[in-house]
Amino acid sequence: MSRYLIGVDIGGTSIKIGCFDLNGYLIEKWDIPTDKSNQGENILKDIAYSIINKVDVQSITGIGFGVPGPVSDGVVLNCVNLGWGQKNVSQEFNRIFPYDYIPVRVSNDANIACAGEVFSGSGKGYKNVVMFTLGTGVGGGILVDGKIVEGLNGVAGELGHMLIDRKYNLPCNCGKKGCTETVASATGIVNLAKLKLKETTQRSLLRQYDNFSAKRVFDMAKQGDEIALQVIDEASDYLAYAMSLVALTLNPELFIIGGGVSNAGDFLLDKIKTRFYPYVGPFIKNQKMVIASLGNDAGMYGAAFLVRP
Amino acid sequence: MSRYLIGVDIGGTSIKIGCFDLNGYLIEKWDIPTDKSNQGENILKDIAYSIINKVDVQSITGIGFGVPGPVSDGVVLNCVNLGWGQKNVSQEFNRIFPYDYIPVRVSNDANIACAGEVFSGSGKGYKNVVMFTLGTGVGGGILVDGKIVEGLNGVAGELGHMLIDRKYNLPCNCGKKGCTETVASATGIVNLAKLKLKETTQRSLLRQYDNFSAKRVFDMAKQGDEIALQVIDEASDYLAYAMSLVALTLNPELFIIGGGVSNAGDFLLDKIKTRFYPYVGPFIKNQKMVIASLGNDAGMYGAAFLVRP
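The joint structure predicted for all components is written out below.
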């Protein structure tokens, strides 16, 4: 009989569920809406029913969960986006899904995105990997010796909240100023562009828009727009700097750049690479860096990774 | 029959050798000079003879080495201070010390200092620990899940070379400017003091000396000297900042501060603690931080840790 891994990536809007073979090959995926009513009390029930409806429970080897919040030793410490406070996910899930011989594991979404890329994406086969997920914010995931590093309070890999900028000092949602995500996320790139447009009267294709996305800044930069280029260079520099700090801490085999911003591909990667080496100095010569390949499915793959045999 | 662990800390001037019981209790220690002639070719032979002379070889469970340079997978990549290039220490040692059933392991000196504190010092019992060794330079050692993190090129834990200062931009031996060790090592503290004395005409007890040590700056600061206090505050701030970067990466259970500068004790630790939390923000509330307790013997203990059963 075939055996399956189930990977569940719980987001604030929808829940992605994937059924994988034991090698991390995706067989089927689907998604259900996230019901955040009543502090998200229906979320685990909805997931359990959905799995039971789709998959022969007898064939399930394990179920992994990714959640958008800190996790330590299998306990979710809080998930503002889901309405959850502290929650022992595997215990609660097993109350609804009464097959307690099936292992249930849970980890943070940025961590499992990294694990997913290592399981089946552009980090396949690596064991010491750091991933930066550049989206609305900046998430970080770390694997040491093939295992996710969660840290004491589940906040290992909060690479988006290293304080790295003292020039713009932009406020971060965390309450600090100058965090990586204020200058290197999609939001950060837009922040930098708006500041630069205000700062000078230089011509720029960006001036025709009242509002624009990070993707627009990249597109304009690729077309040679001087302001857009300066912004992408600066964001790349901040990211390269943040990566250098992690590189001198963990000296990983591989950095993976994921999230929406990573769609800029080699255009971004080349800029980061150039700027990385002056920050690490003589200690690291040939740092492997790649763009993530699983897109929004990385978390689902990584959730399955948690319960691989 | 009693069983012993042998810990060998190879320094540029002397080699410390310790004989430990299996729990990391030191039974006897001694040291021999480091013979750096002919690219340090006699070093391993001198160690082998010294061990054979002192200890009943039949009772040795394992021999661990610490070396002042990067190590990856048991291979020393280079050790300028010993005259060594790339060297497979366990292979070479076993050619001289022909008991190849006795395991031989090797790691970097800053890593084993951390491991030593965890084995028998102020980090005893912890598994996720980061140590900053503040001496002439700044060394770093990292344990994740009870294991030393060496990194791909053996440069994990090069925390002294994270670029953290852009105010003074002092040159570092590594070729970069503004590394942690330019502002937070013993040398860095003296650097900062000399700059501050030049910058102002403010009275300071330090002005009576042409040259002074970091210890002197601490002593003057403890006596309330304004300039010395500013220097120690600033160095503590840099160190707290460097620690925040590592904390948001690994979220360790414990930070250990070691090396000569750590003799300043709680005076230093309290200053670091105050400055650490604004840099980490809401992610970490109660970070454990302690002063190392094994002094210069930490490396020897950590070398023994490498071969603990």
